[in-house]
Specification:
Layout (H helix, E strand, L loop, with lengths): L1 E6 L10 E9 L2 E9 L24 E8 L2 E7 L5 E6 L7 E2 L6 E7 L2 E9 L8 E8 L5 E5 L21
Antiparallel strand pairs: 1-2, 1-11, 2-3, 3-9, 4-5, 4-10, 5-6, 6-7, 8-9, 10-11
Length: 169
């Protein structure tokens, strides 16, 4: 299933960029393919890094997924650098802790006018709820835009329960 992400209306001008994500869930594995199109040369891409867990990836260009898990949710941050982070929350921005999980398999491909990031993320057993798909895109000038399936708040907030807008079988 391929879905468009939309930029939050209060964030930086996206300068002709488009963003779509293809998503599939097979058991505990969430497979994601983010396709950023348009003038991708205007985007600040993190430098390549080892496939290691790293905090603060959302401060620059980063692709993210949120999945309902019991009364809380799981957040996966996937950097084009290869770094990643998976967190679990007990409730809205509450009880954050790192999830011990295998490193997601992240691949980034670039062609003129398009960058594609694919990742397979192994989720905790209880992460079977609704999904929020989103991204942070930073331009070379430092301006940031926030993209998601839905923006239920007047400020960008990927943790907002109503931003978990996708139900998958």
């Amino acid at each position: 299933m391929r879905l468009p992400l939309i930029p939050h209306p209060t964030t930086a001008d996206v300068g002709g960029l488009t963003l779509e994500v293809e998503v599939r869930r097979a058991g505990r594995v969430l497979s994601l393919e983010y396709a950023l199109g348009g003038p991708v040369e205007m985007v600040r891409w993190p430098e390549g890094a080892a496939r290691v867990h790293s905090d603060g990836l959302w401060r620059t260009t980063c692709f993210e997924a949120f999945v309902g898990a019991g009364a809380g949710y799981v957040e996966a941050n996937l950097s084009p650098s290869g770094a990643w982070a998976i967190y679990e929350f007990d409730g809205y921005r509450d009880g954050m802790r790192t999830v011990e999980a295998p490193a997601p398999f992240i691949v980034m491909r670039q062609a003129p006018g398009q960058v594609v990031l694919t990742a397979d993320v192994q989720l905790p057993p209880d992460a079977t709820g609704p999904i929020g798909l989103c991204a942070v895109i930073e331009r070379w000038d430092g301006a940031i835009s926030y993209w998601a399936l839905a923006h239920p708040s007047d400020k960008p907030d990927f943790h907002h329960p109503e931003s978990f807008a996708l139900e998958l079988p």
